[in-house]
Amino acid sequence: MHSRGSPARARILEGSDVFVTFLCLYLVSAGWSAPDGDAIPMWEAARHLVRHGTFAIARPWPINAPAGVGGHFYPVSALLACLIHVPGALLQTALESAAPGRAGALVAITSHVGPLLVGAAIPALFFGLVLRLGYARRAAAIATAMLGAATSVWVYARVPYSEIVQTACFLAFFSALVEAARRPTGHEPHQSSLELARELARADPGAAQRARGALFRLGLWAGILVNSKTIYVVCLPGALAFLVWRLRRRLALRDALAALWGFLPGAVALAAYNWMRWGSPFATGYESVTHGFWQENLLSGLWGQLLSPGRSVFVFSPPLVLSLVGLRAFWRRHPDVAAALALTVLPLLLLYSRYLFWSGDWGWGPRYLVFALPVLLLPSAELFGPAREAANRRARRVLVTSVFVVGVAIQVLGSAFYWSAFIAIARTVQRQWLGRPDTRGTVMAPYPCYSCFEEIYGVAWLPPFQPIGGHWWLLRNKIAGHDARQAEADAPWKRLTSIRLDISSDYDAAQIDWWPLALGRRGWPVALMGGALLLVAIPWRAWRAAVDEPATPPPAAPGT
User: 373 is in which domain, residue-wise?
Assistant: First the structure.
C-alpha cells in the first residue's frame, strides 16, 4: 500500500489522458491504404468542397445512384461522413501546393486524419460516461481499454469510412440522453408555480436552467447524429419515449422548446444538404439507392449479425461477451440506462436485419453495428468491481484477461490488411471451387453486385472463408515471404479440398497495411520512433494508478 500514498499515486487518469493514449495507438498502427469502396465518394466530396466549394463527385457511387442538381453526381453519404475528411483534404491541398508532383501519394495519410482523431475521442467519451454512471475509475479504465483496443473500434479508426464518426455521434447522443433523463427539471407534479419558485430558490435556483441546458444538448446531439447517417432518425422515437417516461409530468413547455431549439441546427443542415444535392430538403438519396433492399428475413438478419461465423459481433468484438455476463447486474443497478440502450439500439438492429446487405458489405465484421459497440459494452463495467470470494476474483481476472488478449489479437489481425485483401481472395476461391454465381436476379441487376449474397455468402457463412482466420493465414505467409502457390497449400479451405486453386493475382496484391512498410528501408527507423511515442507519450502512470485503484462497488444510480 506504500505506493498508493506516494506522489505517483496522485496522478489521476482523465479523459484527456485517454484521448492521448488512443491517439498514439491509432497513429502508430495506422494503415497505408487510399480510400476505397464507400470511402471514395466521401473523400472526393471533401476534396471538391475544399477546392471548388461543391460536394459534386466525378461518377455515381454507388453505381445505381441518380444524378442530382445540375446533372452532377453527389455522394449519398451523410453530411458528416464527408465533413470528417475536410481537415485531411485541407492538408492534402496544402501539400499539393508545396510539392505538386509528389503529394499525390500522401492521400493514404491525409485521408486518415479525420477518422484517427474522431476514433481517439470515442474511448475518451466512453470513459467519461462510465464515470458519470457512478463506477470507480478502475472499472472505467478497464472498460475503456477493452473498447479502444479489443473491439472493432480500433480497426474502423484506421480507415476512412464513416462508421467511426457515426459511433462517436451515437455515443455522444446516448450520453446526452442519459444526462437529460437523470437531471431534475425543477418541475414536479402537483406543485403551483409559487410553490415551485420558492422551492427552487431555497434548494438550487439554477436547477431548471441546467436541466434545460441538458435538454438543449440532447437536441443538439440528436441533430448531429442524423447528419452522420440519416438512418439514425429510427432511434429518435425510442429516445423520446424514454425521456418522457423518465421525466413524466415534470417536463414543462420551456424544456421541450430547449430540446427542439437544440435540434434545429442539425435539421436545417440536413435539409440544406439534401436541397444542395437533390433539389429537395426531404430527399436523402438513400430512398433511390436502397429501393427494394429492405426485404431480408428478420431472423436471418439477426442470426447473421449476432451469430454467423464470418460476421458475428461477438466474434469480432469479444468484450461484448463480458457485457452478457454483467447484463443482469447492470439492469438492476441502472434500469434507466438499460432501457435507453434497448430503445435506441434495438430499432436499428432490427432495421438493419431487414437489409439485404446486413453483413456490411466488404468490411471487418458487422459494419452496421459498430455504432453501438460503446453503449453495448457498458454492462461489462459490472465485472471490474469487487467480487465477494477469492475464487470468484480469480475466475473473473482470468476471464477478463483472456477476453482482452483475444480481442486485441483479433483487432491486430483486422488491422494487418485492408479488409478487401482477404475478401477478394475468398471470392476468387469461392468461384473456382464452389462455382461462379448467377447474379442476373439480384436487386442490383443489371448492375454488378459485389456485396450481394451470391458473391459474399462464403465470407459471411462458411468457416473456410472466416476473415479472422483468413487474415492470420495471410499474415503468416506474407511475413514468411511465401509466394501464392506456397500460401495456397496451407490455406484454410485446404481442410476441405485438395484442389489447387489459383490465387496469385489477389494474393500478390495483398500487402500488410501498416504505414512504415510503405517507406521501405526508411520505415523501420520511423516505426521505432512510433514505438518510442507509445512509451513516452502515453500516460502509463495514470493508467496504472487507475487499474490499481481498490475495487469498490459503484453507488446506486441516481433516481432509480
Answer: 159-404
